[in-house]
Amino acid sequence: MHARLARARTFTHCASIEVCTPHTGGEHATRRRTMAGTRASFMTRLGPDDARPAAAADAAAKIAFLSDPSAYADRPTQVTVIETHFAWVFLAGARAYKLKKASHLRGADWRTPEAREHACREELQLNRQISALTYLGVEPLVRTGAGFRIGGEGKAVDWLLVMRRLDKRRMLETVLAADTLTPSDLEAILQFLVNFYRSRPPLPFTPEAYLRRVASRMEEALRALEHPRAALERTDIERIATALRTSFSSRRSQLGERATHHHILEGHGDLRAEHICLGPPVQIIDALEVYADLRMLDTAEEIAMLALECERHGADWAAAYLRGRYRALASDPCGEEVFEFYMALRAMNQAKLAIWHLDDPEQLRAAARWRERAQNAISGALRHCSTSGATPPGVGVPAPR
To answer: Residue 318: which of 193, 198, 190 has the closest Cα?
Structure first.
């Protein structure tokens, strides 16, 4: 786990917490919160039966304890606190500790300590399949007569996923931003992924079932464009819908063959640049949890997801390198047209997620940014539909607003 651009502070009495909030797609907003603001944040994540002052105060007490360097056996000089939608992460010395929020969001019901323990252990097991060196274990947060303690005797009142802290200078996101990525970096990532994919059993999808699945995901993304808060022009919605459906229709046979030839498996599911550490050794963290169904992907789609990330950071050469070199390393004859469709589909998934953020009360001030991200993603999807030769005559790529 890495700092994700958060500014480190030494916490003693925890009068305030400076946090970096990562959003989908790797965008961050660093801000300072008082402990009262922290309690309010937890209130918005609690279920209706739990949203009471005692529960919020208990959550804030845990955050305050874990923000204090004296809470950790190795006494780090500082603790950096990161808030995500589902958890708080405490970067303390060589370790990172994840405390899941008592939340009930998008199918994840973690309102009890038992549920959070189960979720921590599932996340540990899931990610050890791909990056065992980083995922170290699960520790109880114990309440004693003197207060909280990590591990040891006492009543477990919460649970922490413990990870090895990764060097943020070697995160792919940082390297892309610095424009220092090299082909050997990409080679290491690809070899890591190909080895992982070879260790996974293929999923028994028939071509028909796989095509239905892809079509369903495509239509879900297109429906998201209809959200009133997205404020998209009808002509833009129809343009991308026509282009993406045309691309899908023209690639049905090739996509069906991906299932026939056993390229569909349970992968990582979220190959963003912020999840990849170049090491050495390469480590890929934060596999998509909760929704196992969304990890069931064509290996070529996962590579397309990563290629799209490189494009988003202006490294078009890296996107092309990933696709070509993957084919050689994996002995996978996936055609360019299939890669282009998958990149268009992943771009539309990014647009959908950006639009979903418009329903988050905490994101109201950032609504313009999320609309811009959605429009940029749609433009990217159109470019890849066009590259695949699937954009109908007269359908152009709108400029981002």
So the answer is: 190
